[in-house]
Structures are given as structure tokens and as C-alpha cells.
Design goal:
- The chain is α+β, with helices and mostly antiparallel strands and about 475 residues long.
- The protein folds into two domains: about 190 residues, no CATH class; about 280 residues, no CATH class.
- It contains 16 helices and eleven strands.
- The protein has a five-stranded antiparallel β-sheet with strand order 4-5-6-7-8. It has a two-stranded antiparallel ribbon with strand order 1-2.
- Helix 3 packs parallel to helix 5.
- The longest helix is centred in the N-terminal third of the chain and has 23 residues.
- It starts with 9 loop residues before the first helix and ends with a helix.
Length: about 475
């Protein structure tokens, strides 16, 4: 397979611009991507996508392309022939690994600086008043800022490299500020999960069929059917709220907040009784105390077949006062459905081990088209993925596994490997943060049915104490 074409008939893509697409057309595979073969999941062109505006050369599209589109040259299989691909685009991940040098390369830096200067000099924020587009572009820039400033905090590179990064961060911060909306406007952003359910695009039941695009209809509205989970918390007088944030929150540097939900077949009472049972007889506390993380006993009581677990990611935006504000906007939804809990081979599930995995992500292409399908799209099980979060501090571009894992296999690697069954595949059951995060070891508990989730405010508290946020504020107040 040769190098993908760097050109694409933009007349076609402009004709398929979100504002002009029908619901049926929006349900078709995104024409900007390959969907089969060794280029599956890769972009057809490195040119800017017509996302923020119908014109691909619109300033916002060009700026987004500079931080969201990259080239790769990786084999599809270990030991295979490298294949040139164009990665990124309409994704929620920022393609940057701790050990990368891409974002320090002169060509990359010069391109970004030029676009940011153009934005600032021409008052680029005035090119769109759409609150959703402003929030999303700010989000995209925030990811780049946090990565670059984290590299400086870690003192990666020589002094001149760190100075260039700092100047780039200063420009990014200024653009983020002029894109910011008042907190009142952020509160009015759409509840896109509710819109996704109302669209009729997703099924309300799963029937244990991984081919169904199943989104739980009462996930965020029925706390008896879908109780939300929180950490075990000791009774201490000091303020330790910052400790109780999920590892996913830390991986996204507090730019998103996460909420976990469990659904047991018989509802809240069955779940709460089960958690008490695990706490009483299911933990190897000696090993936990010695190693700083909980080990569940191999023979502890199992979760019931039919259990469902969901992790929901929500966007946090900066308001005009530079305060992080949690929003209702859902960026991703992960749903795990347990057909069996013994780890037995089951070819009717997409894990082959009795669990069905599904991941839905926010697509700008849909969200900017009047929030079609709530902006949510189910990622194909066979989509090749690059894991960006939870990689080592020296991980190079594309991660140690490169392109060798598809989505379903990537989910299985954390939640259904050969040594895990049922309850052992649910890391959120315990506080896996351990000693280094400062949280106390213990089994999670359900939040009261009518209690507000603590995770949005807790994430804001964590973020505002994080060095990346402090540096951002310093740049803007300098």
C-alpha cells in the first residue's frame, strides 16, 4: 500500500459540509477518512477539514488542522512494512506523547506561531459567534497548551527549546482567552446526551448484541437504575477533595470531568449489597497495605451477569474570568455490558470473553450540524487506535504499541485480559490511584439518588491547583 493521496476533491467535501447535510447523509461514514484496508481510520488528505466553517481554508479550520492533523509512518503489524498515513482530525484526543519531539520541530512551531499571530492580529474570534464552536476550539487549544507547558514543567529539552515553548504557550493562552464565553453562556450549552437519545439514532436495549449502537436511555437521569459511584473517603478534618479524582481526569489534566455509573440487573439495592459484600470479604487488605493498591481476592463474590458499567466524559471550559466551568457537553461515553462474568470464550461478544465494549465520541462534524445525533458517533470495533493516555513518561510518538490494536482489543487489554473475569475487569470498583495520588484505599460507594455529582466541582478544584493552570493564568496576567 503506497502513500495516501494528499489531495481530495474539496468540492465534494464542501458539498457535504455539516450545515448542508441531511440526517441520512450524516449517518454515512465520514468522507474525510478511509474506512477499510490498511489505511482504515486515516485521513485522505492533510488539508484542513471543513468543520468550523464550510471553507476549508477558514482561519479556524487551518488552526485546528495545525494542532489536530499529523503524519505517521507505521506498519500495520509488527515487523511489517511502514505505511504513510495522515492521522487525527475530528477526534477528541490530542496526538502528543511525553517523549515526542514533533511539537518542538521548527516547522511545527513556525506554522502554529504564524496561525496564532494571524488569529490575534485579525481578531479571529469575531469570525464566529457560535458558542459551541468557540468552546470546542478553546478545548482543542487547551490540550496543546497543557501538553507544551507540561514539557517545560518537566524541563524537557534545552533552554532555547523551553523558551520557544513558552512563547508558543503565551500565544495559545491569548487565543483561548479571546474565545472564552461568560459562565452564563456555558451553562446554556446543549445537553447533547439527551439530544442523542431523542434523535432515534441509538437503540434503547442491547440484547447482548455488539452490533447494536446501544446508548443507555436513563444513564444520566435514573439514579436507581444507574447509580453513580464515588471513591471511598475517610472521615478527616482536612480538605482532601483534590485526591478523589479519577485517573482519567488526571490523564486529561482536568480539562474534562468523568462520572462512573453501574447498572445491576435488579437495580440500586442489589449493587449496594454487593459493594458491602466485596468490602467485607473480597479484599486482600494485607497485600493492599503493603503495595499501596487494592488486590481483590480471586474467589470473591462475582458481579451478576447482565451488569453494565459506563464511564462518561464531560467538557470543562474556561469562562471570561479564566475560571474552569464544568459543562453538560458529553465528549465520550464508554459502555461495557457483561453477558457472562466467568471470562469464558464467547464469540457472540466483541471481546470474545463475554463482554461487549462500545465507545461513543463527540464529532465536530455532527455537533456543528445542529447537534445531529447529539454529536455522538459510535467508534467502529475494528478502528485502529493509538493510546495517548496511560502511557509511560518517555513514550514516543504513537505509543509503544503503535497501530497494532483495534478499539475492541484495546478495551480488552485493560478490562478483559486472560487473567481477568467479571468483577476483576472493573478497575473503578476500587481506588486504583494508590499512594501517589494521596487517596485512601477502599471500595467505591453509590451516591445518594438525589445528590448532585461531586465530580465536576472536585475536578475544578484539582485543576486550579495544578501547575498547568497556574502557568496559564500567569501568562495571561503578565
Amino acid at each position: 500500500m503506497g502513500k495516501p493521496s494528499t489531495l481530495i476533491p474539496w468540492v465534494l467535501l464542501t458539498a457535504l459540509t455539516p450545515g448542508l447535510l441531511s440526517a441520512a447523509e450524516l449517518d454515512e461514514p465520514d468522507p474525510a477518512y478511509y474506512h477499510t484496508g490498511e489505511l482504515n481510520g486515516s485521513l485522505r488528505s492533510a488539508e484542513p477539514l471543513p468543520l468550523y466553517d464550510a471553507d476549508p481554508q477558514h482561519l479556524w479550520n487551518r488552526l485546528f488542522a495545525a494542532i489536530a492533523i499529523r503524519h505517521s509512518n507505521l506498519p500495520s503489524k509488527r515487523g511489517g512494512t511502514p505505511i504513510a498515513r495522515i492521522e487525527g482530525g475530528d477526534k477528541i484526543e490530542f496526538l502528543a506523547w511525553p517523549g515526542t519531539t514533533y511539537w518542538d520541530e521548527p516547522e511545527t512551531v513556525t506554522r502554529l506561531e504564524s496561525l496564532l499571530d494571524e488569529f490575534l492580529n485579525q481578531q479571529g474570534e469575531q469570525l464566529s459567534t457560535d458558542p459551541l464552536k468557540r468552546v470546542m476550539l478553546q478545548r482543542d487549544l487547551w490540550a496543546a497548551f497543557d501538553f507544551l507547558i507540561s514539557q517545560n514543567i518537566a524541563r524537557r529539552g534545552d533552554l532555547e527549546t523551553r523558551r520557544r515553548r513558552a512563547e508558543l504557550c503565551r500565544r495559545i493562552a491569548r487565543v483561548m482567552r479571546v474565545l472564552a464565553l461568560p459562565a452564563e453562556a456555558l451553562a446554556k450549552l446543549p445537553d447533547n446526551y439527551a439530544l442523542a437519545l431523542q434523535s432515534g439514532r441509538f437503540t434503547a436495549t442491547h440484547e447482548f448484541d455488539p452490533r447494536r449502537d446501544y446508548l443507555p436511555p436513563r444513564l444520566l437521569t435514573d439514579a436507581d437504575e444507574w447509580p453513580e459511584l464515588d471513591f471511598h473517603q475517610p472521615k478527616l478534618h482536612e480538605d482532601i477533595e483534590r485526591r478523589f479524582v479519577f485517573l482519567h481526569t488526571r490523564a486529561f489534566r482536568g480539562r474534562s470531568y468523568f462520572r462512573f455509573f453501574y447498572r445491576f440487573p435488579e437495580g440500586r439495592r442489589q449493587l449496594e449489597d454487593y459493594l458491602k459484600q466485596v468490602d467485607a470479604v473480597g479484599v486482600d487488605w494485607r497485600t493492599a497495605g503493603q503495595n499501596g493498591f487494592i488486590i481483590l481476592k480471586p474467589d470473591l463474590p462475582q458481579i451478576p451477569a447482565g451488569t453494565e458499567v459506563s464511564l462518561v466524559q464531560f467538557l470543562i471550559a474556561l469562562d471570561t474570568n479564566l475560571k474552569p466551568v464544568p459543562t453538560k457537553l458529553v465528549e465520550s461515553v464508554r459502555v461495557n455490558v457483561y453477558k457472562n462474568v466467568l471470562g469464558e470464550k464467547d464469540s457472540t461478544t466483541n471481546s470474545n470473553q463475554g463482554i461487549n465494549f462500545a465507545k461513543y465520541t463527540l464529532k465536530r462534524r455532527l455537533a456543528f450540524a445542529d447537534m445531529k445525533f447529539g454529536g455522538l458517533h459510535r467508534e467502529p470495533d475494528d478502528l485502529p487506535v493509538y493510546r495517548v493516555i496511560f502511557e509511560g513518561e518517555n513514550a514516543r510518538d504513537w505509543g509503544p504499541r503503535g497501530r497494532f490494536f483495534e478499539l475492541a482489543a484495546d478495551c480488552r487489554s485493560c478490562h478483559a485480559d486472560r487473567a481477568q473475569t467479571g468483577v476483576h475487569t472493573i478497575p473503578s470498583l476500587v481506588n486504583s490511584g494508590g499512594i501517589d495520588s494521596g487517596a485512601q484505599l477502599g471500595i467505591v460507594h453509590t451516591l445518594p439518588a438525589k445528590a448532585p455529582s461531586p465530580h465536576p466541582a472536585r475536578t475544578v478544584k484539582w485543576k486550579t491547583s495544578d501547575e498547568t493552570y497556574r502557568r496559564l493564568v500567569e501568562f495571561l496576567e503578565d
